[in-house]
Amino acid sequence: MLTQLKNSLCVVFLSMSALTTTHLVYADDQPLKAEMKVFQLDTSKNTKKELKATDQVKPNSVLEYRVDYLNTSAKNLKNLKLNLPLPVSVNYTGQSFPKDTYASLDGKNFAKAPLTRLENGKKVNIPLREYRALQWNVSELKPKQKISVSAQVRVNTSE
Question: Among 38, 52, 68, 76, which one is most buried in terms of CB atoms within 10 A?
Fold first, then answer.
């Protein structure tokens, strides 16, 4: 399972880098650098530790994905959409930062969280386990400015 989770995290990072914004050129001189870290939370002690390649992640563990973005260019970057795909091996817990989060069931169409749908003529919240991506909209990131986004997920028990 750890290998699957590590592979999923690699896909998340690559997807996140590719989906960051349509205004950027994707080459070695990217103006927006992203660094993702994964932490395992010990909910009984309110502590967290950064996961290493050798760490074992067990079903039902709570992880925090944190992505630090840095504008490495000399220009302001505007209207950024910072996407964080969620692997199918985890469920979003509803905890994210900043709080103004958008979510998607397919990684393409985003709406303000919590997501809703009509069931039997009633508007109901879509279960968080169905979320496949999160997004934060940043109006402007100045040169050398850094922003961090994070989301907590729970590792599926069926993996």
Answer: 38
Query: Which residues are 154's β-sheet partners?
Result: 62, 91
Which three-class secondary structure state does DSSP give residue 17?
Answer: helix
As a whole number of angstroms, the distance between CA 43 and CA 34 comes to 27
Query: Measured on CA atoms in the order 57, 59, 60, 66, is the torsion positive or negative?
Result: positive
Overall average pLDDT of the 24-41 stretch:
75
Sequence-distant (6+) residues with CB within 8 A of 43 are 62
Residue 134: exposure state from Cβ atoms within 10 A (0-12, 13-18, ≥19): buried
**pLDDT of res. 56:** 81
Three-state DSSP state, 60: coil
